[in-house]
Amino acid sequence: MPVLDQAIEGWVRRWRERVDLPLRVRWRAGGAAEAGPQWDLGRFDEPRVVVTIRDAAAVPALLTPSLDSLGQAYVEGHIDVDGAIEDVIAMAQALVARADEAPTQGPLRRWLRTFVHTRRADREAIQYHYDVSNAFYAEWLDPAMVYSCAYFERGDEDLATAQRQKIDHILTKIRLQPGHTLLDIGCGWGALVIRAAQAFGARCVGITLSQAQYDLARERVAAAGLQDRVEIRLQDYRDVDGTFDRITSVGMFEHVGLRHLPDYFRIIRERLAPDGWAMNHGITTTDAHDGETPHGGGRFIDRYVFPHGELPHISTVLRTMQEGGLESFDIENLRRHYARTLMHWSCAFEAKREKLRTLVSERIWRIWRVYLAGCAWAFEHDQIALFQVLCRPAGRSAQELPWSRRWIYEAHSRP
């Protein structure tokens, strides 16, 4: 093992003066080293994170660390990591923040993805992510299995309450009334359309490309006795016909592709009644030029979590929404709400991690473990954001619009 020893010792020498972390690196030949000078001064008694190198394939990730390379080494089993997951993510961020970043390939990657977003490719990408296992998701989501940013009115609510508040916040914003027709693009396991029918009296269509979501959503609609008011379809948003009084899209447009956003919003406009309202709730980048999440985080997500996913900046969302024929009426940033949501998910994942290991492969388990905790860190530190944009068909009279946002916050409470 002399070559591996030499490579790791070189890495330690390189990083000891650049980082000051309670981090220990071990390798299978029996060696171990700490990654900061404060160890020598006695500041750190015990490491908070221990990285164990299992084979030589991990060395490139350490020599030129990025969130992508470190995450890949962990997912593929080249390294093991011990320690609280929030400490693991914080130390990975500290390492990569001091590394030299490779030149971005964002423009080239975006151009190539123009040809990726076919119906088949989008269906396969959705099924890769969402068809992991309903039982797997059920272990760390709330009972309604809402897999999107919750809404914390006070900040101390449990996750189930915050997710119900999020759904009601959306349905109140779009001014959903009894008898309205509602299209939910990317309906997940059906929580929003079920709530819209039960508490708001709407007639709903929910569409998804995930077979697992479709099957369970239909079961849940039937169990609620809502088959006459809620229809779940396995359908692409580009293939929906008819018009609807209201349209919601929650956590879906990240899969559309930057170059396809004007067409996406145009399709929403075509499906929306002339006096209708639509809500787009989705993740955005904080890079004003639609760049990837920094330090290789975006590449890791693309490689392992959301194939072909692309995040626009909010300015791009508003521009392409206007190009698609929609007027943006109300815009709300829920970045800190998503940071808290992900903290809830990650804590639940950690609490049940041994059971979760029995439900999916070790590789999938590792992907979701670092993905949830890493995204919580990214939202908390303004690397990504979450915007709700309320919109309506462009060109309509302004006289019919509410004068204030009071209707959003003084809605009657619903059970």
TrEMBL record:
Entry keyword set: Lipid metabolism, Methyltransferase, S-adenosyl-L-methionine, Transferase
Active site: residue positions: C375
Segments traversing the membrane: none
InterPro entries: CFA/CMAS (IPR050723), CMAS (IPR003333), DUF7884 (IPR057206), SAM-dependent_MTases_sf (IPR029063)
GO biological-process terms attached to the record: lipid biosynthetic process; methylation
Any matching Pfam family: CMAS
Domain DUF7884: 40-92
Annotated family: Belongs to the CFA/CMAS family.
The protein, known as: Putative fatty acid methyltransferase
